[in-house]
């Protein structure tokens, strides 16, 4: 019996170690690729001052560990989503809708933790995901427009706020620029979104991956368009291994918050400073917090 228990524990330990080990290798490999890409393409002088603070060895090690933990949480949440269905966030009956959009190869699971935090802060959260993250950016932008219009119709809200991770931010911004007169968006908050493209693709599948390359027609088109009038704010973590921080910024359309420490690509989804900055940008844009009708009814019934 004891031998069997030890065997089971060894198998579980090996599985967990392999799971985290695979994520760690992915993070380290990605950072090596990102470092190489940065050497091949120097920082844009226009944004270099945002990212010229060198990180210590200790900060880089801490960042790698934290990024591995965050990435593992995202992978685990996406696996739960595919097995158990979309995560639930308790709805509110009032307030400005806040639509959360995931990134490339992600589902609603990736945004669930952030969504629950925003809900606790009083925001009327709506989780959604793309029919396929491999589709062209333009196709997913059309889907986002449908969802924004549906939320406006369902809630009676004049505008919707969007918080998006990675590719989701590019999709949302593309939609806003495609419908300048009636996009229905109050503010767009992006977490590590490659608004100016990525400098390498490394064989990533799907038309969307090709669209996000810095030299693609879509990236050139977005760069040439004038500001949409919608605040496009950016949270970006140092130590990014997927999106180069200077290439995640949008000139003239909003603010940029560079997170201290080497948080990488997934860190902004979970980092406390990132979440508080998201909340502040939403409030600054006039996003109204909601009221829990059930809780209000209970208070009225007991008063």
Return the average pLDDT rounded to an integer: 78
Strand % is 5-15%
Widest β-sheet, arrangement of strands: 2-1-3-4-5-6
Annotated CATH topology of one domain: Rossmann fold
The main pleated sheet reads as:
6 strands, parallel
How many strands? 6
The CATH superfamily of one domain is identified as Alpha/Beta hydrolase fold, catalytic domain
The unreliable regions are 5-20, 35-40, 293-303
Q: How many H/I helical runs?
A: 9
Alpha carbon gyration radius: 20 Å
Gross geometry: globular
The structure class reads alpha/beta
Series of secondary-structure elements, N-terminal to C-terminal: HHEHEHEHEHHEEHH
By CATH, the architecture of one domain is named: 3-Layer(aba) Sandwich
**CATH C-level category of one domain:** Alpha Beta
| Helix content estimate | 40-55%
Distance between the termini: 59 Å
